[in-house]
Amino acid sequence: MRAFDFAVPHDIDDALGLARDESAFLAGGTTLVDLMKLEVVSPEQVIDINRLPLHGIRPEPDGLRVGALERMEDVARHPAVAGPYPVIAQALLASASPQLRNMASIGGNLLQRTRCGYFRDVATPCNKRSPGTGCPAQHGDNRGHAILGTSASCAATHPSDLAVALVALEASVRLRGADGERTMPLADFYLPPGDTPHVENRLRPGELITEVIVPPLPWAGRSRYVKVRDRQSYEFALASAAVAVDLHDGEVRDARVAVGGVGTVPWRLPAVEDALRAGRSHEEAAALAAAGARPLAGNAFKVTLVQRAILRALTELAGPR
């Protein structure tokens, strides 16, 4: 780890005023500190934002609002989340060990970097870490890599379980920077790699996520997060599915479906949703999940895996609550 300046602001304006191009904001530190130790990132300045007033878990008329500094464990266990939005609680509880969930913040979870081994090994090329150096995953070890949204420049998966659930529920993030506040859908916040895999999202330099807003959805109580991984303990997804259904007399009137572990960003599946609304069987709808997939040599199994993750979620939701 390289030397850096350290600052502890007491309000948001102070934090934004301190930020420079080579600054990094520190909340739980469960991603940033690891990357600094590996020298994947080496900020000149670290700004500890834990004293900022970015807390709160509260239902309001425009939806559930969650402060960016709320800890994952607290959000997962909160009654305003666990009952009305079980898919969020389940995604959080499947994300990490209890120790990490007690440290990691909601904003930090949404901004965590990929777990691609090439990205984390500074001795190897990586377009996401060092633009223009290449992507060894294209022909190397790519079992855990993406099959959706990839490019010749990058096939790294997005690691956040929470982001998949929030994209399915059409959540938005509130951002604040030197130019003021803005709000955007989380699905638009993330950027697929294309030719610029080092540009992962629309966050501007020195800008903070301040809040997550989940719009009201009366039938979100019938939702599930299914995560398939190599082991049940702390592990990242090979494939995951966040599914919510509006079910009446055994018929799906509406649905929300997004998947993770298979995409370079949290991946919404409108074709699967449309098929469910049209009355097609769960099997027929789930079969559409991997449309447009581009598997690499080692991860073609993810096509079937993501379809089965969706089918499992739908099967569980079809039963009595």
Automatic annotation (TrEMBL):
SUPFAM superfamilies in the record: CO dehydrogenase flavoprotein C-terminal domain-like (SSF55447), FAD-binding/transporter-associated domain-like (SSF56176)
Keyword Oxidoreductase: yes
SMART domains attached to this UniProt entry: CO_deh_flav_C
Pfam families listed in its UniProt record: CO_deh_flav_C (PF03450), FAD_binding_5 (PF00941)
The keyword Signal is annotated on this UniProt entry: no
Keywords assigned: Oxidoreductase
PROSITE patterns found in the cross-reference section: FAD_PCMH (PS51387)
Gene Ontology terms, MF aspect: FAD binding; oxidoreductase activity
Occurrences of domain FAD-binding PCMH-type (ranges): 1-219
This protein's name: Xanthine dehydrogenase YagS FAD-binding subunit
Lineage: Bacteria, Bacillati, Actinomycetota, Actinomycetes, Streptosporangiales
